Amino acid sequence: MKELSKEMQFFIFLLEQYAYAKGMPADTILKQWDECGITMRIFRMYDLYHCEALENAFQDIDAMLAEVNDSSKEGSA
């Protein structure tokens, strides 16, 4: 069996930690990220996120979600 890449291992860790911090199941968080189209954007941030505090990544993710939500509100107005 092939081992997961370090990027995927970290992504799973980040997802689980973010879900725990939000008090939500990880599958619900992943679905939200997928629906907002930010999953791969988060995955590609490995080089930055793995060497800084998780709270910084959480703030970035929250900002991405807010940006998507703001855009969708503007589009429906």
Features:
globular; mainly alpha; 77 residues; 5 helices
Helix content range of the residues, please?
over 70%
DSSP summary: helix tally = 5
Q: Domains counted in the coordinates: how many?
A: 1
- How large, in whole angstroms, is the Cα Rg? 13 Å
Tell me, briefly, the overall form.
globular
Q: Output mean pLDDT.
A: 93
- Poorly predicted segments: none
Question: What would you say this structure looks like, in words?
Answer:
The chain is mainly α and 77 residues long. It has one domain. 78% of the residues lie in helices and 0% in strands. It is built from 5 helices and no strands. Helix 1 (6-22) crosses helix 2 (26-36). The termini are far apart. The mean pLDDT is 93.
SSE topology:
Blueprint: H1 6-22, H2 26-36, H3 39-43, H4 46-49, H5 54-76
Write a compact overview of the structure shown:
The model has no long low-confidence stretch (mean pLDDT 93). The chain has 77 residues and is mainly alpha-helical. Helices cover 78% and strands 0% of the residues.
